[in-house]
Amino acid sequence: MSHIAVERNRRRQMNEHLKVLRSLTPGLYIKRGDQASIIGGAIEFIKELQQVLESLEARKKRRSGGSFISRTSSSPSPTPSPRSHFLSSGSSSAASSSTTTMATPSPPVATTTMIKELAACCNSAVADVEAKISGSNVLLRTLSRRIPGQAVRMIAVLEGLHLEVLHLNISTMEDTVLHSFVLKIGLECQLSVEDLAYEVQQTFVVVCCRDGDLELPEPADQSQENHRLMMYSSAMAI
């Protein structure tokens, strides 16, 4: 009887541990409710998290090992910040009104600067991508079906575009994944928010075309429609 009681206790503890493990693992990684599926899904989820962590740590080491560029320059003319390049993608009417405001003489203390808060969306049948400026950072969100290793690919693309990943949150619901990035604009970044949304969209399209899940559209008009960028801007006075 003692052996039976020990075995029952062991099975009970194992079932409790499996319940906890299943609650911590996104549902899309677990196809069935058996022990092998739960443990296998948890292992796959941990491996993907390890890839993201290794990519972020490698980025941190490269950044700490390189030379730091001082933001305060001794030259009389200030160096334009990378955020100003993102803001330069506004409409022509907004740019002309901003120029007129600067040309109007006014006291230095009472000068009011208009800052554009820009956002761009690039949606397709594969994924929805949204990029938005928030202060000195960029908020990037992608909504798509689950693609193994997609987070690592996006991080590699963002690093190549001189954008530093400050924060990453991954939310899942069934077979859908939402990636939310907080990015720091690098000094060498030369992209607008529209270009950023388009480049991230391409990471989804290339993978799906490679896997045979999506065919490239043949007509040029259809391609432009699938990757049409919608930009909106709103002025905010400081």
Automatic annotation (TrEMBL):
Protein's GO biological process: guard cell differentiation; positive regulation of DNA-templated transcription; stomatal complex development
GO terms for MF: DNA-binding transcription factor activity; protein dimerization activity; transcription cis-regulatory region binding
Keyword Lipid metabolism: no
Pfam families per record: HLH
Biased composition (Low complexity): 65-108
UniProt domain BHLH: residue ranges: 1-49
Keywords of the record: DNA-binding, Transcription, Transcription regulation
GO cellular component: nucleus
InterPro entries hit by this protein: bHLH_dom (IPR011598), FAMA/SPEECHLESS/MUTE-like (IPR044283), HLH_DNA-bd_sf (IPR036638)
Positions of the UniProt region annotated as Disordered: 63-108
Family named by the database record: Belongs to the bHLH protein family.
Protein name: BHLH domain-containing protein
Organism the protein comes from: Sorghum bicolor
